[in-house]
Amino acid sequence: MRRREFIALLGGAAMVWPAGVRAQQPQRMRRVGVLSSLAEDDPETRAQHAAFAQTLQQLGWTDKRNVQIDYRWGGGNMDRIRNNAAEITAWAPDVVLAAGASILPMLQATRTVPIVFVLATDVVAAGLVTNLGHPGGHATGFTLFEYSLSTKWLEFLKEIAPNTTEVAVLQEPAATYAAEQLATIQAVAPALRVKLKPVDLRDAEQIERDIASATGGSNGGLIVTAGASAGVQRDLIIRLALMHRLPAVYFARYFVTAGGLISYGANFIDQFRQAAGYVSRILKGEKPADLPVQAPTKYELVINLNTAKALGLTIPPSLLARADEVIE
Fold first, then answer.
1. 83, 184: one domain
2. pLDDT, tens digit, for every residue of 99-142?
3. How far apart are CA 150 and CA 226, in angstroms?
4. Counted domains in the chain
5. pTM for this model (two decimals)
6. 322 lies in a domain?
7. Domain shared by 189 and 307, yes or no
8. Where are the beta strands (DSSP E) in the chain?
9. What is the residue range of 129's domain?
10. Residue 232 located in a structural domain
């Protein structure tokens, strides 16, 4: 073989061999941070995270194999949530999933890490995105509900307990979305001959005092609007509603599975499954700015017949027929 041909052969091999080696290299481990405003041992948190991880796996991302999923929980404590958001940002993850009250602290902690949010309220007014169809920044995700949904809570309450005339409305203190929910309920209250009393959710002692005093008499009722504080304090709220024999309507299914009377709202688990789809797309190279913010596509009416019986209530057959789930 001539010297020139030999050198050319070596050069060609050098060009092919490294590419072959690169093709055999294992895929880079990706990292996903998950920040929840609920507690680590909360059954709802576990169900949400399990649905998220399971859907990611179905999409080709298996924890500890080609993606590392790290979870942090706030337990309703905003200081802890902010600290967790800072910790997650320091990891420099490929994408973060943030839920509920943890969304804004996560967005404040980073302007570069891609964020997918779930259970979000007032996303444009709160500055999470500039446009629902074209978010334009490093965050996108799924909203909790549309405000018109709030009227259903009072309508269902009157249907299940027609004599109700005074209703305490438990709400997240100082939250713009709480005011919007209340305003929507107030718009239909006169037609239903109901007087509303707003109650801010704070510490346990205050909740006990306010629920006891807000709905005195046999014509009282309770509406628990969407908010992180209500989720954290749900066992207490459910217990107080039963203690004071108050028919109560909640914004999420997990209140009813824990002993509440009735709920109407978005399917939270479904949102975490959808969020896994967005996370997968971002891991594959898409940008949050190009993924539209989506409203819930699945709402569910859930009724607990055991609780109705304990309160001496008979659920109308027409309402039972509309229920997505009846707990007996």
1. no
2. 999 999 999 999 999 999 999 988 888 788 989 999 989 999 99
3. 9
4. 2
5. 0.85
6. yes
7. yes
8. 30-36, 67-73, 95-99, 115-120, 139-143, 166-171, 195-200, 220-224, 248-250, 262-266, 299-304, 325-327
9. 30-144+268-297
10. yes
